[in-house]
Amino acid sequence: MLSGADLRFVRDLLIRYYRVANLRLPKDLALREFAFQTLEQGVYVRHLSFTSEAEVRGYLVLNTPRQAYYSTAKYSNPAAESYEDAGWLGSEIMFDIDADKIPGCTTQVVGDRVELVSEECLNLAKEALGRLIYVLVEHMGFAKEELMVYFSGSRGFHVVIVTEDPEWLTLKQVHRLELAEYLSARSLDLRRVLKREVRVGRSSTSPVPPAERDGGWRSLIARFHGELDVDEGTIQRIAVPVDPLVTQDTSRLIRIPNSVNGKSGLVARPIELDEVESFDVGEAKVFEGYAVVVPRTSFEGSIYGTRVRLSEGGRVRVDLQTALYLVLNGLASVVRYGVDRVRT
What we know:
The chain contains 11 helices and 18 strands. The chain has helices spanning 4-20, 53-63, 83-86, 119-139, 166-169, 173-184, 190-194, 216-224, 232-238, 244-248, 320-328; strands at 34-37, 44-48, 67-71, 73-75, 88-91, 93-98, 108-110, 114-116, 147-151, 156-161, 197-199, 205-207, 253-255, 287-295, 299-303, 306-310, 316-319, 332-342.
């Protein structure tokens, strides 16, 4: 819980940012529920509605929340206290890729409780994001313009299907779950996928290597593996580890793109589809300057690409973005700071 100088420090930075932030809000924002986590107590304020970007920005500047969201669902009365009274009109479909859920990713613990993902883990998540986009476009037929892609500001990436098609918007939870299970290869029977043979003699057959034209998982194996020698490990390297709970949820909250993630201090940065491969976490850093902090723990390593060396109880000068991460996570207290620039 933030208090004193640390609270003033975080609030000052957030106000500076939200005054100029390039918020990405849905065109039909009047149909969305908005929700915010308070900076001081960490409680959630829900069932809010706005009619314009100016109203949303005003709320962010005045209240400076730790987290800011809007609903995937569209409601006729988004400010209603109950789901039944809100008048559900449909929900966009969301996919969530967390780096720490990808095989081969290990997190680093800072202090005794704060888990930090490495750049290598984020690169693995970015590769999975590329495969997700491929499947959504090439296998499921979504237009590239219907995909809203952004860095979560912390551990991974989100993709939201932004469509006006009522068949997708009103898709039932069980069918949304099937999308997630197809992507993650859950319950995939590899023997059935590979069981395709051609007769080469009177009594013998030969397996046919997967080809992209085959469709389904044979197509994915051909594109991302390219060999007949396939095992469960191969499938796990191709599969996209999306969170099934997120995809199936018709009342899920979306972090407002270009809002500050209250866990990391990084921005939930939108990414153009042709820039996914080149995306770097540095693009999510918006605060430039310095801070002198007193660490509450000792740590030496990299925090989102910045090398840091902390000694508990001492004083250390760090860049402003790193200082924000440390304060938000209770790892240090701020003594003084200077702001050179706030990028949008």
